[in-house]
Amino acid sequence: MAAPALHVHMLPDHLSMTVGLVTWLVGADLTRRLRLLRDWNIPEAVTGGLLASLVLLGIREGLGTEIVFDMETRDALMVMFFAGIGLNARVQDLLQGGRPLAVLLGLTVAFIVLQDLLGAGVALAFGEPAGLGVLLGSAALIGGHGTAIAWAPEIAAQFGRDGAAELGVAMATLGLVAAALIGGPVARFLIERRDLMPARPTEDLAVGVAYDEEVFERITLRGLMRALLALNLSVALGYAAAQAIETAGVKLPLFVPCLLMGIGVGNLWSALAPADAQVSRTPGLNVISDFSLSVFLAMSLMSLQLWTLAGLGAMILAALLLQVGLAVAFILFAVFPLMGGAYRAAVLSAGFAGFSLGATPTAIANMTAVAKRYGPSPTAFVILPLVSAFFVDLANAAAIRLFLSL
After folding, report:
1. Domain residues of the chain, as ranges?
2. Nearest to 161, CA basis, from 135, 125, 122
3. What are phi and psi of 106, to 5 degrees?
4. What is the 3-state secondary structure (H, E, C) of the chain?
5. Which of 115-119, 131-135, 162-166, 379-383 has the lowest mean pLDDT?
6. Would you state the pLDDT for residue 1?
């Protein structure tokens, strides 16, 4: 008997964002009601996004209708968010972040190698060529969906393995879910076991506001307008920089030059504007940044195509469990101590869990949830995006190429 026809329904951009807003609000309400979610630092967007993706899976399987989203606004929100991270980055934080940035980069490169070695080992254990292991390792996890899809045709051709793209996408999807769920608990374990405290606990957060803080009386229309102007300037300059960089033959994600331009605009604004017209680390900018990240992540997670995970074999499930175990062990015994063993290292540990198994926005969401509960760590929010978005793609591409050549 033939399977019923599947109807694909594309939601336009405006409705896609509307669903994203509902998704986040449901997640926020669940986080407010369920103390367990707050205690384990699970981002609101993760709770709502995973719930929405399950609902969409039920609609597809039960009604034969697959809902697809136009993600133009989502992608714009990501760029806006990273520009906000740049605006909040002060020169002194950048100076303080030089050595930690280098250490985190070295740790990340080492972890890429370990991730691919583990992926190769799992592939060999299940009778597959070792080169296929990069799709069980850094190509799908640190690289994410885009990197897995980009490398899959070459891997399929080299090893004669059909379904390489589906394997990489499935691994990237599972990794993203795991990344969103383990970062907060790992940070909580480190912070509460060692009774860690922020270096400057009274400072405003780099993103968002604390769960128990009311900032609305400190937000003004003029402040919001100033923040939006600074963000739009940063994004406009970021677009121009991205085009110049691409003309020079270098390909970078758009949010990287927007982040860098945000750093320039933010520090110049701080130097020239009077005290009552500042933008950096103001409640208005923090709320806009939190909104951008929250809706971006909610839309990303609600659009996960969970049906692609159906029928996964033991190999990919074994790889996921081992990769999660490797990430947690690496964080506890390498990342946290080598990044200083203090509060900032714990926040970065949540972020490392996010991008080592998922993506940079997931990392920032993990760190934001931790900072909302325990306090600010501004340098962490500058260090991690520069490593995870700027340097890692180059190191990962080199590692993948090396493993495939071997």
Report:
1. 76-212+252-405
2. 135
3. -60, -40
4. CCCCCCEEEEECHHHHHHHHHHHHHHHHHHHHHCHHHHHCCCCHHHHHHHHHHHHHHHHHHHHCEEEEECCHHHHHHHHHHHHHHHHCCCHHHHHHCHHHHHHHHHHHHHHHHHHHHHHHHHHHHCCCCHHHHHHHCCCCCCCHHHHHHHHHHHHHHHHCCCCHHHHHHHHHHHHHHHHHHHHHHHHHHHHHHHCCCCCCCCCCCCCCCCCCCCCHHHCCHHHHHHHHHHHHHHHHHHHHHHHHHHHCCCCCCCHHHHHHHHHHHHHHHHHHCCHHHCCCCCHHHHHHHHHHHHHHHHHHHHCCCHHHHCCCCHHHHHHHHHHHHHHHHHHHHHHHHHCCCCHHHHHHHHHHHHHHHCCHHHHHHHHHHHHHHHCCCHHHHHHHHHHHHHHHHHHHHHHHHHHHHC
5. 162-166
6. 46
**Among 327, 396, 384, which residue's Cα sits nearest to residue 109?**
396
Where does residue 312 rank: exposed (0-12), middle (13-18), buried (19+ CB within 10 A)?
A: middle
Percent of the chain with pLDDT over 90: 45
Token pair belonging to 145: 């969906």
Q: How far is CA 303 from the centre of its chain?
A: 15
pLDDT, tens only, 44-89: 889 999 999 999 999 999 989 999 999 999 989 989 988 998 898 7
Alpha carbons 352 and 391: distance in angstroms, whole number: 14
